[in-house]
Amino acid sequence: MAEIDEKRANLFYSEIPQQADLFFLKGCNSLDWGMKNRLARIFNSSTGRTVMLAFDHGYFQGPTSGLERIDLSILPLISYADSIMLTRGILRTIIPASTTKSVVLRVSGGSSILKELSNEGLVVDIEEAIRLNACALAVQVFIGGEYEKETVLNMTKLVDVGTRYGIPTLAVTAVGREMQRDARYFRLACRICAELGAHFIKTYYVEEDFETVTASCPVPIVIAGGKKIPEFEALKMAYRAIQEGAAGVDMGRNIFQSNYPEAMIQAVRAVVHQNETPEKAYALYQELAATRTKA
Ligand code: 5RP
What we know:
Helix content is 40%, strand content 14%. It is built from 13 helices and ten strands. The protein has an eight-stranded parallel barrel with strand order 1-2-3-6-7-8-9-10, surrounded by six helices. α9 links the parallel β8 and β9 (221-224). α10 packs antiparallel against α13 (278-290). The longest helix has 18 residues, at 148-165. The termini are far apart. The structure holds ribulose-5-phosphate (5RP). Residues 54, 56-57, 85, 140, 172, 174, 224-226, 251-254 line the site of ribulose-5-phosphate.
């Protein structure tokens, strides 16, 4: 036995120190292994960025334009996304369980477009999120909204319970109908969410000083697309957001309400993962659109 051990001694490579890599996402190095692994299923570790496809809008506004039949409009897009953001109802009823895409599960709700939007609670418990193999839990936070405190506490509860099981929290800085969207507001909202424990944050792009929003937020930021705008404008917005420090997009309407959603999501990918300019990405959109039928 002693003889065999001597022969194998060189396999210990004692002169090579074991590597201690830093985790690739900003502010996430001190998280636990499971939490990092889930984040690495949402963000691509080669680029440090993500293209999340958001189609959770029905949770407060019903069958939004483009989401009337998610089986027909969204399923063909999923292969182009790094991650999908949706409700448990749509996950169970429409998304094939064979998907390997990471799931960001919408877990706040309780209000509708007919009433005060900020009056939300947590509507999914942690066991259900685990059962559904969620990689992150998404919660709306209405800073300055009528139910500001309640939505902040929804988020902190989620951070606590998610941390217990290694599931990150995505805070969505929601703007009510009347709130002003500028860098000052989003600096405030994003920073509050990060200080209180959110692991990554979804916010809106603003033309002026967006880099101050990303710089002053210690965790990754992804941008929502917002209302549908022309494809070239949406690609410009995504490009600027990325160049100004966003770690990706969590885009819905500007993809699924496009005339050519499959072409659009591929163009968005080019901007996010290949730093493609809006002009080149738009040319790609047009080229791909030319081969497809209108949605
Ligand atoms: C609702 C959400 C939506 O997922 C999000 O706004 C969708 O993205 P888009 O604005 O690009 O349609 O978080 O508050």
